[in-house]
Amino acid sequence: MNNDFKSGFVSIVGRTNVGKSTLINLLVGEKIAAIANKVQTTRTQIRGIVNRENSQIIFIDTPGIHKPKTKLNENMIELSWGAIQDSDVILFLIEADSKEIGRGDRRILEKIQESHKKTILIINKIDLVNKEELAKLIDLYKNEYDFKAVIPISALKSKYKDVVLDEIEKNLNLGPAYYDIEQYTDQTLRQLAEETIREKALILLRDEVPHGIFVKVDKMKFKKSKNGEDMYNIEATIYCLRESHKGIIIGKDGSMLKRIGTMARKDLEKNLNVKINLKTWVKVKQDWQNNESFFNN
């Protein structure tokens, strides 16, 4: 490792549904965070690791900032505020079609101002606005904080990846590699499986079931298939809040649960490059969102 090597922790903060998980997946180059067009998709801090020739960047994707209504929500918000304090660099993600600094963005901005941390403002979804509108938004935020850089992007397009990474690397301090250079996340395989199953459930169920789904892998066992291929047997339970939700998740003759399982299995096989035998069940766990021992386990 050369003497100019840099490293550090970078948190991605923003309101719910602004594209934080999409951005971290783009920057890491692997799918490590659930993506669904619903608020509160990310519930935990997920670390993604980018190893470059002269640096190691450890990303923390935080839950979106929103008004907490349950113990789970409160826990999520605390994770986000804590990430700001623990970071070397902050990526503050906002949407390009914002006309003003809304209440949620204002709260985040105040936390950043209090921290005095190096912060890069990332303006996502620039395809939604023209250049004049974008320029006004940039000026609006520049008047609030001394950002190290302002980078307009579309998190869905790979051409912005190195632009963001180069700017982050520029603002890191000299330091060692904290993780193995072959590693791209500190999530366990169980956590990756749980995230993937939950993402597929959120996508397929759309607005039919409120955001009250929790996935827990009960068993995960490695084995060799009959053909000698590496394989994981995974058994997972999807928890929901009501009996009526359970019926929707299972679907007629088990059709919806089968679709969720099939999509999750294919995604896991692609990401892990290993065969997956996935079995899923659905159980009702009333008010689990207010039971800290349940979702913190």
Protein model, in words:
- With 297 residues, the chain is α/β, with parallel strands linked by helices.
- The chain has two domains: 6-174, P-loop containing nucleotide triphosphate hydrolases (Rossmann fold), CATH 3.40.50.300; 189-295, GMP Synthetase, Chain A, domain 3 (2-Layer Sandwich), CATH 3.30.300.
- Helix content is 36%, strand content 25%.
- The protein is built from nine helices and ten strands.
- The protein has helices at 20-28, 71-86, 103-115, 131-142, 161-170, 189-205, 243-250, 255-272, 292-295; strands at residues 6-14, 46-52, 55-61, 89-95, 118-124, 149-152, 173-174, 214-224, 230-240, 275-284.
- Strands 1, 2, 3, 4, 5, 6 and 7 form a seven-stranded mixed β-sheet that branches.
- The chain is globular and about 55 Å long.
- The two termini are 38 Å apart.
- The model is unreliable at 34-44 and 64-73 (pLDDT under 50).
Q: Number of folding domains?
A: 2
The beta-strand count equals: 10
CATH names the topology of the largest domain as Rossmann fold
Helix content: 25-40%
Top CATH class of the largest domain: Alpha Beta
How far the N terminus sits from the C terminus, by CA atoms, comes to 38 Å
Share in β-strands: 25-35%
**Biggest β-sheet, characterized?**
7 strands, mixed
Ranges with pLDDT <50 over ≥5 residues?
Answer: 34-44, 64-73
Radius of gyration: 20 Å
Question: Given the helix and strand composition, which structural class is it?
Answer: alpha/beta
Please tell me the CATH architecture of the largest domain by its name.
3-Layer(aba) Sandwich
Average pLDDT taken over every residue:
82
